Amino acid sequence: MSALEESFRKFAVYGDTASTGNRMTGKNFFKMCKECGVMDGKAVTSTDIDIVFNKIKMRGSRTINFLEFQLAMKEICVKRFKGKSPEEALQAVFGLIEGKKPSNVGTTKATKLGGVDRLTDTSKYTGSHKLRFDESGKGKGLAGRKDLKVHSGYVGAYKGAGTYDKTH
Questions:
Q1: Does 51 or 101 have the greater pLDDT score?
Q2: pLDDT band at 110 (very low <50, low <70, confident <90, very high)
Q3: How far does CA 125 lie from the centroid of its chain?
Q4: For 111, phi and psi rounded to 5 degrees?
Q5: What is the structure's pLDDT at 112?
Q6: Nearest-5° angle of CA 112, CA 105, CA 41?
Q7: Cα torsion for 69, 72, 73, 74, to the nearest 10°?
Q8: Nearest 10 degrees: CA dihedral of 47, 56, 25, 10?
Q9: Where in this chain does the entry annotate a coiled-coil region (predicted)?
Q10: Which of 66-72's residues contact partners 24+ apart within 8 Å by CB, and which partners?
Q11: Cβ neighbour number for residue 43 with a 10 Å cutoff
Q12: What percent of the chain has pLDDT over 70?
């Protein structure tokens, strides 16, 4: 197996556990063109990649095989390397792809530590949840979950409760 076909297979199975590596989706084709430098944003744009992929694939199919991939590269190489002969341009494009494999740059990494600590930090709680804990982070129990009635004779939420005797 050539280095080019090996790279094709690695990109074909990327992100798809059911893939055998014989057929590549448009998403993976785009990823390969972007990561290998075939798509430079000037001579070859993302639109060009999509157009060539849809032109090469069989009608009704969502994937291309290795032979169709080579045909797609023949179309792209002429745009990518203007001034070179089609054969030289094709070899230059294949040179960009050979030996490459998909990278995981930009993917989201899971945090190893602090996940539970971050969620249980009561100092960051807001709203009604904030009322359930005291300053130390200890729960207030039933008093933090329910509004308990005060039978003092004063209207609820009255700020001057218990001050009647102190004024006379």
A1: 51
A2: low
A3: 28
A4: -75, 135
A5: 61
A6: 155
A7: 130
A8: -100
A9: none
A10: 66/5, 66/8, 66/22, 69/8, 69/24, 69/29, 72/29
A11: 14
A12: 86
State the CB neighbour count (10 A cutoff) for residue 30: 17
If residue 64 lies in a helix (H) or strand (E), which one and from where to where? strand 63-64
Nearest CA among 154, 38, 32 for reference residue 103: 32
Largest separation between any pair of C-alpha atoms in the chain: 106
* Residues 6+ positions from 5 with CB-CB distance below 8 Å: 66
pLDDT over 60 (residue 168): no
For residue 163, the one-letter residue type is T
**What are 93's two structure tokens?**
């494009």
pLDDT in tens, 79-89: 888 888 888 98
What pTM was estimated for this model as a whole? Answer: 0.60
